[in-house]
Design goal:
The structure holds two protein chains of two kinds. Chain A is α+β, with helices and mostly antiparallel strands. Chain A contains five helices and five strands, in the order βααββααββα. Chain A has one domain: 2-Layer Sandwich (Heat Shock Protein 90). A five-stranded antiparallel beta sheet of chain A has the order 1-2-3-5-4, with helices on one face. In chain A, α1 runs antiparallel to α2 and α2 runs antiparallel to α4. The relative contact order of chain A is 0.20. By secondary structure, chain B is α/β, with parallel strands linked by helices. In chain B, β2, α1 and β3 form a beta-alpha-beta unit. A five-stranded mixed beta sheet of chain B has the order 1-2-3-4-5. The mean pLDDT of chain B is about 95. The chains are: A alpha+beta, B alpha/beta. Chains A and B meet through α1, α2 and α4 of A and α1, α2 and α3 of B.
Chain lengths: ~150, ~100
């Protein structure tokens, strides 16, 4: 299926950009007229993925984070967050709730758990020393669609 | 992200506002911990009424403060959680660890 709308972002892996990244993705999704809850869910999931790039992928070194977002005609949004950092040797282990490689920094180890709870699908592709791509997918049930269903009851 | 701290007796009330993420958590942690140590606090109240966003970095912050207070045999109360913040806290099971008021 071809995307009806696409955007690409590239920015420094600085923690100051975490807010920018989640806000930019949220702004892009506004064309789907999401509910406040849907927008917050996407912002939170993107924030988790971007934080992972900065804290774990690059271990606080400054490099680039890449985000692409595609919107499809069935109101699905697919967001890819990519880094070229150290990669994950064992993705399954990394995705276990409470597992973290940075406990001394008060990391809760819940980034992936939060992403999986708030998004419809989460996929992780990673190769040690080559980087990690996290793909988040969610179908936005737009307010317009909700109104049509409710008014039929 | 800003925090306004009130200390009375051995109770520290931290009024958080804005966004809590990995970036803002660092400074928040420092300010809260300084106050807790200064007051030799037995109770830490984190007020979330003005918090507009929080991800799991906020969970780490709360868990870390919980551990700090436990060392002093103190307690942590989480107050005025907006619905989206409460949702993330519950995902982490924090409602079983700290009291929500």
């Amino acid at each position: 299926m071809k995307a009806s709308n696409t955007m690409r972002l590239c920015f420094d892996s600085r923690s100051a950009n975490e807010s920018f990244a989640r806000t930019a993705v949220a702004a892009f999704l506004c064309t789907l007229d999401p509910t406040v809850e849907e927008l917050t869910d996407v912002k939170t999931a993107v924030s988790e993925a971007v934080t992972n790039c900065i804290v774990h992928g690059y271990r606080e070194k400054i490099d680039k984070v890449y985000i692409t977002a595609n919107i499809y005609s069935d109101n699905r949004v697919v967001i890819k967050i990519r880094d070229k950092g150290c990669g994950i040797a064992d993705v399954k282990k990394a995705m276990e709730p409470l597992f973290t490689t940075a406990p001394e920094e008060e990391r809760a180890g819940l980034g992936f758990a939060v992403m999986e709870s708030l998004m419809d699908k989460v996929k992780v592709f990673s190769q040690p020393d080559k980087g990690t791509t996290v793909t988040l997918e969610k179908r936005i049930v737009s307010k317009g669609e909700e109104y049509v269903h409710n008014s039929r009851d | 992200m800003a925090v306004e701290i009130q200390i009375r007796d051995q109770v520290v009330q931290a009024y958080l506002s804005g966004e809590i993420d990995h970036h803002s958590a660092v400074q928040l942690r420092q300010q809260i911990d300084e106050s807790v140590l200064q007051a030799d606090a037995r109770q830490l109240i984190l007020d979330f009424a003005m918090v507009t966003f929080m991800d799991s970095s906020g969970i780490g912050l709360v868990m870390g403060r919980f551990r700090l207070m436990q060392e002093n045999e103190g307690t942590v109360l989480l107050r005025n959680l907006p619905a989206p913040i409460r949702k993330v806290m519950k995902l982490a099971g924090l409602d079983k660890l700290a009291e929500f008021i």
